[in-house]
Amino acid sequence: MTLSVINAGRGAASASDEERWARLAWSRLAEPQTEEVTAWLRRHGPVEALARLRAGSLDPTGRYDQRLESLDIDSARRSLDRLEVRVVIPGDDDWPEGVEQLANPPICLYVRGRGGLGLVEGGVAVVGSRAATPYGLTIATELGEGLAARGIGVVSGAAFGIDAAAHRGALAAGGPTVSVLARGLDRAYPAAHDGLLRDIAEHGAVVSELPLGWAPFRHRFLARNRLIAAMTAGTVVVEAGLRSGSLNTARTAAALGRHVAAVPGPVTSVQSAGCHELIRETGASLVTDTAEVVDLVGRLSFDAAAPARAPSSAEAELDPVAHAVWSAIPLRRGADLAALQRLTAVDTPTLLSVLGRLGAVGLVRRDQDRWRKVLPD
Amino acid sequence: MTLSVINAGRGAASASDEERWARLAWSRLAEPQTEEVTAWLRRHGPVEALARLRAGSLDPTGRYDQRLESLDIDSARRSLDRLEVRVVIPGDDDWPEGVEQLANPPICLYVRGRGGLGLVEGGVAVVGSRAATPYGLTIATELGEGLAARGIGVVSGAAFGIDAAAHRGALAAGGPTVSVLARGLDRAYPAAHDGLLRDIAEHGAVVSELPLGWAPFRHRFLARNRLIAAMTAGTVVVEAGLRSGSLNTARTAAALGRHVAAVPGPVTSVQSAGCHELIRETGASLVTDTAEVVDLVGRLSFDAAAPARAPSSAEAELDPVAHAVWSAIPLRRGADLAALQRLTAVDTPTLLSVLGRLGAVGLVRRDQDRWRKVLPD
């Protein structure tokens, strides 16, 4: 079969192709979050459920008949191959386990990009208003850049404003970023972000639960937001008016037990009002920089952010690599060499040399196999 | 005796003059927060303790002898009368009961001003950085004005920056404001705020625990900050760098079980870093406007701030008096006429007329003897 070079099964960690095409079929038959479909897939599995639907023994109402008749799996697969879009389903290596916590998980996920979906594991959603201010755009870019520089996937929705700034920040760091769209992957949305989405696919992934050709409707944005919340370890809202959809993402994240944080801003800015409401009313964490976000989402299980403090002079004089290493050392527990490598992506000889220098100027100390920050009193 | 027209006892609710002059003497003998003096006053009372000190039976070290020899109570009382400074002590009507919670309460309080010290009961401390930004000054002025307009005493330290802005906002509303100084009341501190302090005395009070002539030293600022925290129902920090003394006021307020709140600002502003740290690390409440502060300090025991919401058109069309009345109605419980009068300082006929109009446009409803807000869904 010449079909599906892109979508061929990939060894032990891939789910069966039979199930893959059954899920592709189901994703073309039903809207996301259709409860009866969720129930059928759970009860019978997608292959058996599809067989029963075709046999007329599953749905007495006949409401899927029309879409079932026009369903052309082979044609759909050819389009996916042409656009280099993979179909990722439960059981695949890079299926994001977090989405299984949703009342109605996605039936499958359409993915384009070199990075693949594995990037979202431990990733952080950076979301916010389309009508962002220069302040919000600056902060979103810095957070995207800072997270990506630490190897943490930056997940967002590619919308105008905060979303795009977060993606661009991550791209600037050459780091992983994943965009979740509210339409099929045949077109960019918004269209003006066609180039941005290409760059994201180059360095990460563009994802949707919607089949090719499906357009963005209001309820599909809400469905998309739940995916962003569920895929990630935490959601940070950078700027949001009181009716921003990003508050919806934050609420879903909180309901799923994910970390929720918001960036404060001037109380005179309507674009920060939603952030302040999140902190006041829902107990979202107030975060002011990347380090606080990293500590919040518990990377390497560190349990506290470094308290804000006035910069020390020794710290201010470090070169960029040394500063990055110093910044990456978690406050309370320190880190061992392997952890520091993961956090900094600095090679071992350089890392050891930098740690030696930091030790010499009294900024770190070695404690058996761990390095710890020495903080001013 | 022609002395002390200002400081004559004022009937049943005033403490005895004998105790008053003994406390005045003690305040001139010891620095604020001297633990052994606190203990002596508690054990013997100020009159007996002073007699024992004079008899040489209280303090074997003799460390108070020099000040005791130069002590001239009559001269001190003449200066106080000339400057119209009262000595307020425990048992007086307007002694702020909150200060008794301190490990070392003030021995007495020197007070100048028409308003008297009773204003601080249920009052709110609005404090912050000397090096405030235009943003912080604007917010502090608005909070001072908003609180005073509701009849809530605005307590601060008359320093440059946030303190002065809060006082000025309160004065602009013609409302009560109290300034607590870190020096004796014979001079303005800072000197540039001489006019401001006169205005504060005209509409409220200027207070110190330090005798006339005593200069502001560092530890006296810290002592002053504890008074601001202890006198008030809550402390709001508007802007604070990471080493601002206002954080010290906030910590004292928290330790005394007072409400502590902070105003967020841009994360790029060092003058908001202390506020963000308070919210992040100590659980201070994030507040964005006067209504949130009022609800926080529990005036009339209201227990929740109105959730932030997009402005409704009916509300936006109200005249200033109607808007003030509408804003003053607590969200959950509403308020009766007496409470609304206290909150708004609007006379009864006007208040009833305004409530009638608000009812007619559907913004309030009457529920037996209470008026409640009708909120948009």
TrEMBL record, chains A, B:
Show the coiled coil region(s).
none
GO biological process, any: DNA-mediated transformation
Q: Where is the Smf/DprA SLOG domain?
A: 87-296
The entry assigns this protein to a family as follows: Belongs to the DprA/Smf family.
Which PANTHER family does this one have?
PROTEIN SMF
Q: Tell me what this protein is called.
A: DNA protecting protein DprA
What organism is this sequence from?
Knoellia remsis
